[in-house]
Amino acid sequence: MSFTYDDCYKIKELHDLENLLDQYPDFKITLFPVGAALLSIEEKDNGIWKRFVEKGHEIGYHTFDHINLGVMSPLGVLEDFDKWSGALTQVLGNPYPTHFVRPPYDIISTPMNILCVERGLVSTLFSIGGGGQVDIVMNAIRKGKNGDIVQMHVRNTPESQDIDTSVQAFAYLKSIGIGAATLSHLYNDLLLEQNQSAGCDLETGESLTRICIE
Ligand SMILES: [Zn+2]
Questions:
Q1: What pLDDT is stored for residue 210 in this prediction?
Q2: d(CA 70, CA 162)
Q3: Is 111 exposed, middle or buried, given 0-12, 13-18 or 19+ CB atoms closer than 10 A?
Q4: Could you tell me the CA-to-CA distances from 47 to 53, 95, 155 in Å, in that order?
Q5: Which of 51, 123, 145, 202 is spaced 20 to 30 Å from 59 by Cα?
């Protein structure tokens, strides 16, 4: 499963998450910080983003200031991505190959699609979503399967809930033999699966990676 953490406004929760992940060295997550948080969190803990990346976690684009990409011009979206990307380069000290965009408010839009084409990104939502009350999210995770994408938040309200859920969820997943992987890992597995699948699914249009002729 892929655990994704949007917004990333709060340093304490990020530290709690980092400490939790240190207890599960095989579990990797994807963070979707806004650009403003990349800079403000870095000011409070120099090197925090670099540590996450060096430990094998992934970072994706969630806009610079949590804007709805759907109301922006395509040029405005490209500029916002480049501004966000610049902030990420600044805190990591190196350019970073961003692969995914999680649009704020989960709004898929034409300007966002243009961004994906122009900057080679893949948009991603989730199959277990939103975070929130611990017992409700845990119920959803218990029904989850390999390949599910879980959306969590690191933001001001309510206090630490999604980190508390992560504590329970990681222990539960480990006990049933399911791991946590980055979105890139999950996505590459999906492409590999399509590429290696036997035969053709005629009339499904899924012939990009295979020769499908009747
Ligand atoms: Zn968000």
A1: 61
A2: 27
A3: buried
A4: 10, 15, 20
A5: 145
In the predicted model, what is the mean pLDDT of residues 149-166? Answer: 86
**Banded model confidence at residue 191, pLDDT cuts 50, 70, 90:** confident
Q: How confident is the model at residue 203 (pLDDT cuts 50, 70, 90)?
A: low
* pTM of the complete model: 0.92
Write down how long the chain is: 214
What spacing in Å lies between the alpha carbon of 35 and ligand 1's midpoint? Answer: 11
| Rounded distance from Cα 96 to ligand 1 centre (Å) | 21
Tally of CB atoms within 10 A around 16: 17
State which H helix or E strand residue 15 sits in. Answer: helix 11-22
The two tokens of residue 68 are: 């709805």
DSSP 8-state assignment for residue 61: B
Q: With bands split at pLDDT 50, 70 and 90, how would you rate the model's confidence at 192?
A: confident
d(CA 55, CA 199): 38
- Domains in the chain: boundaries: 2-196
Q: How far is the CA of 6 from the centre of ligand 1 (A)?
A: 5
CA of 211 to the centre of ligand 1 (A): 40
- Cα–ligand 1 centroid distance for 105 (angstroms): 6
CATH number belonging to domain 2-196: 3.20.20.370
Spacing, Cα 7 to ligand 1 middle (Å): 5
